[in-house]
Design goal:
2 domains, 49% helix, Rossmann fold, 312 residues, alpha/beta, five-stranded parallel sheet
Length: 312
Amino acid sequence: MSTKSCILLVDDEERILRSLGLLLRMQYDVITTTEAHEALRILSEKDIDIVISDQRMPQMTGTEMLAQARLSSPRTVRILLTGYADTQATMDSVNEAEVFRYIQKPWGPKELRDTIAMAAEQARRSRQPVVVDPPISVKVVTSNLFSILVLDNDPQTLQTVRDIVGLRFPVLGVASVQAALAILAHHKIGILISELNLPGEDPATLIKTLRRERPSLLTLVITSFKDTRRVAELINQAQVYRYLPKPVRAGVLSKSLEATIHRKEFLQKQPEPLPEVDKIPELREQLNSSRMAAYLQKLRTRLLLTNHEQLS
């Protein structure tokens, strides 16, 4: 029995499959197909670790195929490969297929190998049983109740979220990144709902920072800012859970928020290995991210010291 990870490659162009196969066969067991329906059949019959699909195919799109794959083989790590800047397809890859990575053609061999190595590690870890209970000698007191933070300068977003959630969870609202950091230091935030287009600020850097500092926090983006590159960045560098364009209907937001809450509650009961994310490549954004992380830690330390002094 092979110990290699098994990868399913799906593309209607034979030359792409040959190129990918040559790149990957030394390290992985590779299965290829040019048909999306055949890919779904293979996923239903075989234990596939990773599926990599092209977006534009004649029978169905890559996002449609990967969305069905998520339901039929949820353990399989999903990667979308595309040569087109299609914002709707990029958002669908988040909202419907929950892809691990979004890779644009032409890909760099090293980039692709590194991404697949991370995907293979994620698949390997997902096979391992997770020990949920702490040792008997350790007494742990935890609360599963979390709060939802809305970062948006449009008050309607906060009101809509409160209408959807009702009294089930506390919902806090802020209009700036600085205020969001203060809330994050003082409250147990389980879900962040964020606009990307705030005057003079870049919430995307905050989202990427939180993925590293608070990896169990889930992010739902609701924004008027539509840019394929930015969506792809937030998939690859922050693993955002949902991405919705404004104006968003209350019913669509409700469905996405309920899915996010359900996922968060599931992860609290059954922790899973968290997927790795790509490094932030731009130096300026790296520095801003480091400053945010340091400021968040400083606020948290100050809060702990204040609480200690009050108890003394």
